[in-house]
Amino acid sequence: MIPRDERPLWWILDADHRAVPTDMHEWATFFKDQNNRRVAFDKVEGFAVSTLFLGTDRPFGASGPPLLFETMVFGSDDSIQGSAWWSTWDEAIEGHARMVDDVRTRGSGKRQ
Hints:
- The protein is about 25% helix and about 30% strand.
- The longest helix has 18 residues, at about 90-105.
- The protein has helices spanning about 25-30, 90-105, and strands at about 10-15, 20, 40-45, 45-55, 70-75, 80-85.
- The protein has one domain.
- The protein has a 4-stranded antiparallel sheet with strand order 3-4-5-6, covered by helices on one side. A two-stranded antiparallel sheet has the order 1-2.
- The chain is α+β, with helices and mostly antiparallel strands.
């Protein structure tokens, strides 16, 4: 495992949705196109569930894989009702589906 202070700061996705370290210029160019960031989006029971590729590691904890994807659940007033972070595209897709299921069964994306 690469120590957090030695990890790359910037990431983009390759054609197979794998995160690849890059420099800030290439990251900024990649992020100009919103389609490069969107993983999934669903409207469910008055809530919006959105999963995005962040391209930067979330600063939680000192070890573990980089957390480069985020799923958020927004209420009808745009308030944040739940969130979760993922390391890979596949985890993000699976996590998004679980959050959508949570909204359908509990009315929010709050994990219990």
